[in-house]
Amino acid sequence: MNSLKKIASGVSTFAVCASLALPAMAQTYMPECYIPAPGVEGTISYEAKEGPYRIALVNGHTGIPWREQMIQSVRAWSERPENAGDFEELRVVSTGPDVAAQIAAVDNFIQAGYDAIAFIAVNPTAFDAVIRRAERAGVVLVSFDNPVDNPSILRITPDWVDFEAIKAKSVVNQMGSDSGRILEIRGIQGNSTDRDRHVGVEKILADKPDMEVIEVVGNWDTGTVQRVTADAFAVHGQFDGIICQHGCRGVTNAMAAADHPPVPVGGDAENGFVSALADNEVPGISVSVSPGMGPLAVRAAIKLLQGERFPSLANLPIPNVETAAMEPGVHYYPDEPDTFETVTGYATCGEDMVFTPDELRNQSFETDWSVKVPDEAHQSRALRPRL
Description:
It is built from 13 helices and 15 strands. By secondary structure, the chain is an alpha/beta fold. The chain has two domains: 13-158 and 291-317 and 350-379, Rossmann fold (3-Layer(aba) Sandwich); 160-287, Response regulator (Rossmann fold, 3-Layer(aba) Sandwich). A seven-stranded mixed β-sheet has the order 1-14-7-6-5-3-4, with helices on both faces. Helix 4 packs parallel to helix 5, helix 6 (160-175) packs parallel to helix 7 and helix 8 crosses helix 9.
């Protein structure tokens, strides 16, 4: 099969000429949504091929409500009348934290002749070989949320450094002091998202030598976050501020159990956390990475198959709200479970990228292990190079 032609770190002569005539943002698809990352000049594009398409979604870690709602969002988006015609098939697999298992799942979909695969990488550096295999097979890969470090495929993610810096800055501002003790609750170790978010915290605290930081690992899991937060309270006493990546309802639960004073807390957009801040007048900020990133990645895969051009690294908007501005029915939902992600999608990315609770509830987040063996027609539809 012919290999794919990508315009990544090496920009083609055509692309250079175009950049002289047009604003940089005008060269890529929907730049107000898929924001070209600062300092990234390369773009990704493929020769268009006719749909409908066979699309796969390969998730890694399981048992995380955000991941479950992400899968529900992808399925809901794919079934909307305006989108359904682009899908011949949609398959979803969740492999857990095993890198080899996730790579094997991607390989299975490549060998089965799927047109595109969107995936959340368990490890940012482990996918170079499978990326090369996808290229040889004519399969589009889109890495999102925890992006791979390889710039030869489209990667979609918030700017995680800025994401956590927004949170840390708000916590420090609401503390009202450049000195004190902060508890930083990190995510799954070895993950690119945790790595970059920690850098965002360090960026804000770098010029504050009198700020003591205690780090613990919460693994983005509410129960784990509650346990490590309670342990930190027991060992270190009271904190002046808390910065939590995800699973932050565990923080407010631990604060209530320990009768900890209502210090500024920066956390996620899960319903239980946001409502705890608002209902208990705890100063803080909710910074959201919406599960709607899943549909954005799948839409990007389809648009790449249709010949659209994207920046090689696309950042997403970062919705956030401080406690003082939180409103019921807007920023949190009293009738929804604590695990519900309050920011269901990215409104700036289109009306079809926001989902109602009922729409999501009607979708399954379970793994679909069925992979069909490709027929000759599918094998003959490999993408040809764009020259």
